[in-house]
Amino acid sequence: MSTDQDLVTDGLLTHPYAVYDRLRDTAPVHRVTGPDGSPAWLVTRYDDVREALANPLLSLDKRHALPGGYKGFALPPALDANLLNMDPPDHTRIRRLVGRAFTTRRVEQLRAPIRRTADHLLDALGAHGGTDLIAAYAAPLPITVICDLLGVPDGHRRDFRAWTDVLVAPDPARPQAAKEAVVAMLGFFTQLLADKRKEPADDLLSDLIAVRDESGSKGNDRAGSDRAGSDRLSEDELMSLAFLILFAGYENTVQLIGTAVLALLQHPDQLAALRADPTRLPAAVEEFVRYDGPALLAIRRFPLEDVTISDVTVPAGETVLLSLAAANRDPRRFPDADRFDLGRDATGHLALGHGIHYCLGAPLARLETEIALAALLERLPDLKLDGDPGDLRWRPSLRARGLLALPVTY
Q: Are 20 and 325 in contact (CB under 8 A)?
């Protein structure tokens, strides 16, 4: 074990993979100062991260955290009762309720609507010119898809993108912005649920409201007094689930599309190979997500008892941060791991998690990325990066990996 390390000042915001390379070799389980200045343990080797992701002794429930440790987003109860803060049996119950909407077979039915959305966005760009591909394509595609799935009206989609950006990468110069975004989102979801109750539609949110209301528990339960032993949702769980689906369904996919396009533009040989054989796209998505996935860290965890990770004992209740990005670049698991190679067998990557907390929306994220890239390859054959790659700006976030903008010509 080494001394505490400040991840913000040590370069993780600007050069994450270089920092992770160093830590994997010198201190694979490392005491760090977390994003909010509180202590945590950072785990960086593939085998350790994979084992920890599936370890039932590492809880997601913040009630098991010691005072003063890093706990992640500070959200009100109505948004915090979600899968990212739950262990079984509550996690199992809620995941079963919503999981049917995200099976590979159900998601595949969205292929044609997603492609129509992609073509519509590319139509708006015109046949040639220049644009910020994040703002014009990578961001509006997933927000449109997830909002259509949930049944969110068009007029609120731009607001939700802005609120999400504030939460993922808080601006130190605007300390109140995150709180204001949370208040705005709470009001938005409260009104959205009320509107859906008045006028249900053929969408996922209306279905979840029906599950909640038809359970016979319309009382004032908030955090879930009606949880145990049935397929039911408390009101807080319902709102938190809607928040999580919309937040994660947008956030992860926009970043993945952006970094995938950048990787291709920076590796013209790989881009040419994919253009020559687009049937390789589904397998290519696995390398995109391994090489530069949207989440640097998994959701923080709290040991229920002292646990040993790579010969380091982490006391019960302290915060554990599992680096998905570091694990996916571990040469012990992926030879020449820093090389982008669409011919590589990237299966087994941890970018979308592992174990019971494996990303619920993984099939949708994969399909959206595949379709987004297929449309780009077909419609914009001369796509090029506009400017020096060194000038690209990345989100100032220790959790999420994503471009602020991706200027291109076509």
A: yes
